[in-house]
Amino acid sequence: MKDLGRRFAVSFAAITVAGLACNETASAQSASPSPEPVRLLVGFAQGSNSDVVARLLAAAMAPRLGRPVVVENRVGGSGNAMAEAVARAAPDGSTIGLLAPSFPVARHVARNLPFDPQADFTPISLTATAPVLVLVSPDLPARDLRELGEVLRSRPVVCATLGEGTFLHLSLVLLTRALGSECRPDHNPNPSAVIAGLEAGRVQLYFSAAAAALPAVRAGRARAIAVASTQRIAAAPDIPTVAETVPGFEVEAWYGVAGPSGLPSEVLDRLQRVAMEATRDPAVAGRLREVGAEPVGSTGSEFAVRLRAEDTKWAEAAQAAGLRPAGL
Fold it and tell me: What is the CATH number of domain 2-129+253-320?
């Protein structure tokens, strides 16, 4: 099982390096004389899931645009620093950003955001989605969601999150409410420490991206009792969906491209077409699947519908968690 985890880590690192190399090559090929590069901003550090997706996308978009596409990491505020930079950029297509689930959550958990998530952006394309697993401690007497609900209603359970008001914290709030119960949150920004806590029984419940969780599950360090997407995942088809017990329940990670508001229609149309083509490129789609994501490549209008639905979902979850709304 250790070999499985090592192979996953090596694969993820190799894909990251490949994305970096392809992006640098695409940029170099467009050098001197070349048009100004397109900046694709990412709100998380190099090597993160968002960063890997962005670099794969940038490498495939550059030759289609005929311009270099340079990934820039703007880390801070769970993606808010990146979002602010995109919102303030000129609406000419030279600066775009890769949004993640933290984006629609932001206005419901933080005050005085320097941007309006609903008014300051132009959705371009939903790039990919990624399943999330419901994990429990190996010694928790719950093999499925019904048993988890019984345990939650019978005794205190500690649920781990990566921080108050984060996407995964609010996902836990939605799940425990759906099961007619609640848990006591333990906020820890270190995913490795959370898995260690599950293994030791210090925490009993956790939401995690499937790609990061499966090595721990297969090593017996945590038990996966459900996948929060609407469909079971090919990598672990024996794990049922939450919706099989709680109809309509759906939570998943996702990555999508957006620009500042006011993008001219011709600029939006071109960026949308290029992003869709890049995502659906067999090589890019294959690499996305290798890191646990499912390629989508939607239109901007379809992505806008998704963002509105996400906003409604996280507004309800933030209220249930007792978190304050943003002061826009």
Answer: 3.40.190.150
